[in-house]
Design goal:
The complex is a heterodimer. Helices cover 76% and strands 1% of the residues of chain A. Chain A has 2 domains: 18-90, no CATH class; 91-344, MetI-like (MetI-like fold), CATH 1.10.3720. The longest helix of chain A has 38 residues, at 202-239. Chain A is globular, with a radius of gyration of 24 Å. By secondary structure, chain A is an all-alpha fold. In chain A, α7 crosses α10 (202-239) and α12 packs antiparallel against α15 (310-338). Chain B contains 23 helices and 20 strands. In chain B, the strands form 4 sheets. In chain B, strands 1, 8, 9, 10, 11, 12, 13, 14, 15, 16, 17 and 18 form a 12-stranded mixed beta sheet that branches. Chain B has a 4-stranded antiparallel beta sheet with strand order 4-5-7-6, with helices on one face. In chain B, strands 2-3 form a two-stranded antiparallel sheet. In chain B, β8 (260-266) and β9 form a beta hairpin. The two termini of chain B are 33 Å apart. Classes of the chains: A mainly alpha, B alpha+beta. The interface between A and B is large, with 47 and 52 residues.
Chain lengths: 345, 618
């Protein structure tokens, strides 16, 4: 397994090179006229002369041939310089690293309730197949699955913030922000709740958590619906397998049949989906970040794509690729741990 | 009696609870997006300018909501001919500098700070910033300092400067001489006065200097040098020309004399925090802390306002119906605030011959000739094709005003006497029948009407032109074509677009900012109309007593008697309306959404945003 992991990790640079080449080439199809948009100040835009527009293209090397531009980008990237982020107003690397902790923080907090609840309820629904509980879960998941995430997010915001005033948008209150910026508070990870624990500031922890609940609730319901359905379906299928019948025939208790024999096998597809889910969370949930006004990796990437900020798009792509490759590797390794029949070679 | 007092106490308690303003000395403004840069010589977006407006001061400022009157600021006087501070036939403006003004770091303002500020602006001149449009043309008559340097040295800028931005050894001395001979005399300190020497008399110069939060903000020389900016010396000035925005040491720092100090700019959260400057020379602001945060989602901003956690939110006019009539909930809506902007349908008098948007390029029913719009009947016909009221009422939801010409209301020279263009297809038909001596009606034509993709209002206008043309004569075909922004600009600059919608927002509230831009053949739009327009605008006109349109526009720009100027601009407008040189579509109006405890909001259309020194909560 170690060889497999090392081999997969060694492939990362090659994969990144291939992906960056493809995306860079796609960008060049847009041409300098479109790519220069990211550098034009909208207020000046309506009055720029052809010469000024061209000088802007020259300054940012947009008139250079594609191989020259790619070579420049690659050489700078290898030196750790991913360029300037027009949307982030800071170097691309800083823009990503300053936003990634917010996405990871949501992922961390959402991960356990979503996966834990989904597996628990999914297994329970399968065991109590065709009972009232099962029907309730089916309706519950159907609603969640059909709800547009944007509408659900706004609904959560209006109810829990607009009506009840419990969970405000943003990441922290004004007072909390001032404390976090003061010398008495050290930012270790950029994740507010985690840093609050390290600083032993429970007021900041609660403040940060208060701002996390509504976005987590939004993501959770939508993902519960998805994971729960998969767990339930997978569990139902496994419960009909011969070895489960055999276990029952041998007099194994129903509890052991469900938890020791069936559940372990039923979780394999759940692991696949959960892997994608975690990767998706880290890459940012744009809608949730927008509605609840949380800075995040997804929102940065989406804004960069909308404004044709190509340096940021390329930088985000590199990060996304690394997260995807490492995430999928973790999923593969988890398979092998859950099911000893799977061998990684 | 006892019961009465208990009841009274309960009522008073309830009233006091409900009338309490949350965080009275903290102001939260939920806006959209983030600032672009904090360098006043580079910032050219309202988001950046609004922050700078509260961090820096100018020499003079606009008087409250007036756009035609000034007050002294860091200068103790507004220059006029009467007070003797406008000299040398209007080419020298003198500013006595206020004593005892403090910068945020405690340093005292000196005339040398003012001198450094304007010289740094001239040297910095970047085509993506405001300086090349505002200050350099006034000081040097060009848009770019390098044009003047090339003229002085005798070789192009690219030949003088190496790849690292340093002067080649053989040109170094001449570039130093250029600074000493050309740049240095533009700004002179005499005792406590600063003299600004401009190239030609200009009625708009004070308007430019009064514009807050941008090119005329006064910097702190010593602090700038300490931060790695230009050292104020002739040797090496060229290294500070046109840096990339992010390379400027002022990109995310500020040191002004304004009413607020910059505490923090959190880019991830699009959040600015400003703190009251207690030593502000006009007295400290009532608000202690101002937070401006970019909250992109409208529903989130609206909910924050409803809960009273935001004091003002960035408005979206189309959602006005969600906010109106909620005074009892403490929500205040201000509407009908006129922006100094004009949106115009432009016609190119001489389209590039190989433009794809004139199709066959001939008057054969399958295209139009490149000089299609030199026929006055065609221009007048197009002017009557637009249903202006429908655009304002249905497309803009009422957030716009009619315009007679491209001059925005209420600038000097604006007159209600000048008639608005009329939507009347019958009149349009009559003009089309006369065009090209009657040939156009029989042959028909095909033309591209262009808009920039994403601007649905402009697309609707283009579709309206297309549909109304077809209604008048089925042989009149218009193809509505959308282009991406940069391609749109390129097509405009290359004179490829025969008809297109584009706008202009005022940089300073002077008629030159609209009249010269649209109607002078040297103006931004005038140049794009093509050489035929240049010929036309330089022809002697009996209407102007024999002067050409261009000459008359230049005379008006230099006229220092404001009443006389107003008359001249009215006359220019009467002329251009008769010639249908450009079709003014509408002047946008804006709205503001705020809590009712926000006090002392003064609307001045030229301000880049809110003045937090004036605002308070009560």
């Amino acid at each position: 397994m170690i060889t497999y992991i090392v081999r997969r990790l060694l492939m990362i640079p090659l994969l990144l090179l291939a992906i960056s080449l493809v995306v860079f080439s796609m960008g060049q199809l847009l041409g300098p006229d479109l790519l220069v948009s990211a550098y034009i100040n909208p207020n000046v835009a309506e009055r720029m002369t052809a010469e000024q527009l061209n000088s802007l293209k020259e300054k940012y090397g947009l008139n250079d041939p594609m191989p020259v531009r790619y070579a420049k980008w690659l050489s700078n990237t290898l030196k750790g310089d991913l360029g300037w982020s027009q949307v982030g107003k800071e170097p691309v690397l800083d823009a990503i690293l300053n936003r990634l902790p917010y996405s990871i923080e949501i992922a961390l907090w959402a991960l356990f309730p979503i996966i834990g609840f989904s597996i628990w309820m999914g297994v329970k629904a399968a065991v109590k197949h065709n009972t009232f509980f099962d029907h309730f879960i089916r309706v519950f998941t159907l609603i969640g699955w059909s709800f547009p995430d944007f509408v659900f997010g706004i609904f959560i915001l209006l109810f829990f913030y607009g009506v009840l005033g419990w969970f405000p948008p943003g990441v922290i209150s004004v007072e909390g922000f001032q404390i976090m910026r003061s010398p008495e508070f050290t930012n270790y990870t950029g994740m507010i709740t985690i840093d609050a624990i390290f600083n032993w500031r429970w007021d900041i922890f609660i403040d940060g958590l208060r701002h996390l609940i509504a976005p987590i609730l939004t993501i959770s319901y939508l993902w519960w619906a998805y994971l729960l359905r998969i767990t339930r379906a997978s569990m139902l299928e496994v419960m009909r397998k011969d070895y489960v019948r055999t276990a029952r025939a041998k007099g194994v208790s129903e509890k052991n049949v469900v938890h020791k024999h069936a559940k372990r096998n039923a979780l394999i597809p759940v692991v696949t989906v959960s892997g994608q889910f975690i990767i998706g969370l880290i890459m940012g949930v744009i809608i949730v970040e927008t509605v609840f006004n949380r800075p995040g990796f997804g929102r940065l990437t989406a804004n960069a794509a909308q404004t044709l900020d190509y340096s940021t798009v390329m930088g985000s792509l590199l990060f996304t690729s690394i997260i995807m490759i490492v995430g999928n590797l973790i999923v593969d390794v988890t398979y092998a741990l859950i099911d000893p029949r799977i061998r990684l070679e | 009696m006892k019961k009465f007092f208990v009841l009274l106490f309960a009522i008073l308690l309830t009233v006091s609870m409900f009338s309490q303003v949350p965080n009275p000395d903290r102001f939260f403004y939920a806006t959209f997006g983030d600032a672009d840069t904090l360098d006043p010589h580079e910032a050219y977006d309202t988001s950046s300018n609004e922050i700078l407006y509260n961090l820096y001061d100018n020499l003079i400022r606009y008087d409250g909501e007036r756009i035609d009157a000034f007050l002294p600021m860091l200068s103790t006087a507004v220059p006029t001919e009467d007070n003797g501070y406008i000299r040398n036939d209007g080419r020298t403006y003198v500013f006595p500098i206020r004593q005892g003004v403090k910068f945020h770091n405690g340093a005292t303002l000196t005339p040398q700070d003012v001198e450094y500020t304007f010289k740094r602006a001239i040297i910095h001149s970047s085509p993506s910033g405001p300086i090349s449009y505002m200050l350099i043309p006034k000081f040097l008559g060009v848009q770019d300092i390098t044009d003047k340097a090339a003229e002085y040295v005798g070789v192009s800028w690219a030949d003088m400067i190496d790849a690292d931005g340093d002067a080649k050894p053989e040109y170094r001395e001449r570039l130093i001489n250029f600074y000493n001979d050309v740049i240095d005399p533009l700004v002179i300190v005499e005792g406590n006065e600063v003299h600004l020497n401009i190239q030609d008399p200009s009625a708009s110069f004070l308007f430019i200097l009064a514009h807050g939060g941008s090119w005329a903000s006064i910097l702190n020389k010593d602090w700038m040098i300490k931060e790695g900016n230009w050292d104020g010396k002739a040797d090496g000035w060229w290294k500070y020309y046109y840096p990339q925005k992010e390379e400027s040491p002022l990109f995310e720092k500020a040191m002004g004399t304004g009413p607020f100090k910059l505490v923090d700019w959190n880019k991830a959260q699009q959040r600015f925090e400003l703190e009251r400057f207690d030593d502000y020379w006009r007295g400290p602001a009532k608000l202690k802390t101002v937070i401006r945060q970019g909250i992109d989602e409208w529903a989130t901003r609206r909910t924050m306002l409803e809960r009273g956690e935001a004091d003002i939110i960035m408005e979206i006019a189309m959602y006005m119906d969600q906010m109106e009539g909620r005074e009892n909930e403490g929500i205040k809506v201000l509407k009908g605030l006129g922006d100094l902007t004009s949106i115009v349908l432009n016609m190119t008098w001489e389209v590039k011959a190989d433009s794809r948007y004139i199709f066959s390029g001939r008057l054969d029913g399958q295209g139009v000739p490149p000089d299609f719009f030199t026929d006055k009947n065609v221009r007048l016909a197009f002017q009557h094709l637009i249903n202006y009221e429908a655009i304002i009422n249905d497309v803009l939801n009422g957030n716009g005003m009619r315009m007679a010409t491209t001059l925005a209301k209420p600038l000097l020279g604006y007159s209600e006497e000048i008639a608005y263009p009329e939507f009347n297809l019958k009149i349009a038909e009559n003009y089309f029948r006369r065009a090209y001596r009657g040939r156009l009606w029989d042959t028909g034509f095909k033309i591209g009407v262009l808009y920039n993709i994403g601007n649905d209002i402009r697309r609707t206008v283009a579709e309206m032109v297309r549909d109304n043309l077809a209604r008048i004569n089925p042989r009149f075909q218009a193809e509505v074509i959308g282009l991406q922004w940069a391609a749109y600009l390129d097509a405009r600059n290359n004179k490829e677009m025969p008809v297109y919608a584009l706008g202009w927002a005022a940089d300073y509230p002077d008629p030159t900012n609209f009249i010269n831009v649209y109607y002078s053949s040297e103006g931004y739009y005038g140049v794009a109309y093509g050489d035929s327009y240049k010929v036309f605008s330089n022809q002697p006109q009996p209407f102007f007593g024999g002067a050409s349109l261009d000459a008359y526009i230049n005379l008006a720009a230099k006229e220092l008697d404001q009443d006389k100027r107003a008359e001249m601009y009215e006359r220019i407008q009467q002329f251009v309306v008769g010639e249908a040189i450009a079709i003014p579509l509408y002047q946008p109006t804006s709205v503001r959404f705020m809590r009712d405890w926000v006090q002392n909001f003064i609307f001045n259309p030229i301000r880049p945003g809110y003045d937090f020194w004036e605002l308070y909560k009560e």
